[in-house]
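ok trying again, last paste got cut off:
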Amino acid sequence: MAIATSPMIRAVNTELAPALHCSLFQTHRKVFTVVALSMLALTGSGLVSSPIEMPIPAGLAILVLGVPHGAFDVAIWNSRNGDRSAHGLSGMLVKYVALAGGFFCLWLIAPAVALPIFIAMSIYHFSSDWDHDLDGIPRLIVAGAMISAPAALHRAEVIEIFSWLSPTETANAVALAMATAALPLLQASLVVMVLTAARRPWAAAELAAVLALAWLTPPLMFFLVYFCGLHAVRHMIETHRLLGAPAGYTFACAAFPYAPLAIAGTVGGALTFSTLPPGPALVGAIFMALGALTVPHIIVVDWYGSTD
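nice, full thing came through this time. structure:
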């Protein structure tokens, strides 16, 4: 959906966008850091169970709170491309669906290939959460440490989740590779945090909270808190800035009808293609959908939509 505002409102919003974006960004960073540390305390005290024991609620939370942030890709494309015609929109959607469908087919045909590709794509994409704080290599180091960390202390649970997505041998091999890489990547990330702390203390605190979550909480809990609480929200803040800080209702409409379609498609895929029990089937379908949608999402957001 194209965002339509009057020229005067667009001009005012464009002037206000940088200040509003900075305020939203910093507020979100501080709130997330506090929430992450609270979840660490609750998990450590035994007051919060591992989400793998209740996969349906965890899957629905990720689906409803996390997946829809990609629904703004059409608005990002429109903002960058300038072609808001029906022909331009349909062409973009055809390419988007074709890329997602191609990776989904790869996952169905060769999950042993698709899983490591998905892990690599996730590291690359999630590293963009610190575009404003770190250069390219430090960002990738931190994202790699974050993604690989769950396999270090919670390998059995990581293998269980991966086995919902790929053969058991692949799940074991990928988890072993992640566990092997986790400690050196963490050590490198600690250096990044120390260097960052001098000029961006809250950024360093956020990095510390994310990595502590990744290491010390159950994998599905970490992913739920990080993906829904940091990545999805930060993406929407960045998109709000990119679109010129439109009003809340107008901004929300930019994700319609794509967010409901993504949610419905993921649930439909879980019911249609999976032979797993309902809980693992839903979580597995969500990760497969994320893998499929990450390909066009990266192209639109990290390459085509980059504003650096």
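cool. Residues 1-14 have pLDDT under 50 and may be disordered. The radius of gyration is 19 Å.
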